[in-house]
Amino acid sequence: MQQVSWEKLQAKGNPLISPAYKSNGHVFTSGNVGSRPDGTFPSDVAEQTKLAIQKLEKVLHASDSSLSQVLKVLLFIADPKDAATVNSVYKDYFPHMPSRSCVVVGFPNKQVKVELECVASYNQREYKL
Question: Does domain 2-120 have CATH number 3.30.1330.40?
Fold first, then answer.
């Protein structure tokens, strides 16, 4: 088991969680929300979705993986009325249609409209002596 650190992402992170863990050919990510680099949230759910997926992509790259290697997505949305908009953005990033669950939740921060986490495969490096 290997932790992916915030330092590897060159990001200020949450001190309570790791961005991801790698184990047995899989990477397990924490949730990624659609905030801007300054910590603010766009009011537009499509923009939040793009930002959240782009953050997820950075975590995957730091984990020797990519969006195309995602096997399962857990998607949280604040408002079921936003599902169509979220899906229209989502499909552009996940054309291979990984398995997915979508849950409507009440986020503690009311500015948050979407959050994604995933399980993906990663490129295991073989070392030869």
Answer: yes
Place of tokens 């499509």: 46
Chain-centre distance for alpha carbon 101 = 13
> d(Cα 51, Cα 118) in Å, to the nearest integer?
15
Cα 117 from Cα 82, distance rounded (Å)? 18
d(CA 20, CA 28): 5
pLDDT tens-digit map of 28-60: 999 999 999 899 999 999 999 999 999 999 999
Q: Token digits for 28?
A: 């397990």
pLDDT in tens, 74-99: 999 999 999 999 999 999 999 999 99
Q: Which two tokens stand for residue 70?
A: 């995602």
Q: Is the distance from CB of 32 to CB of 116 less than 8 angstroms?
A: yes
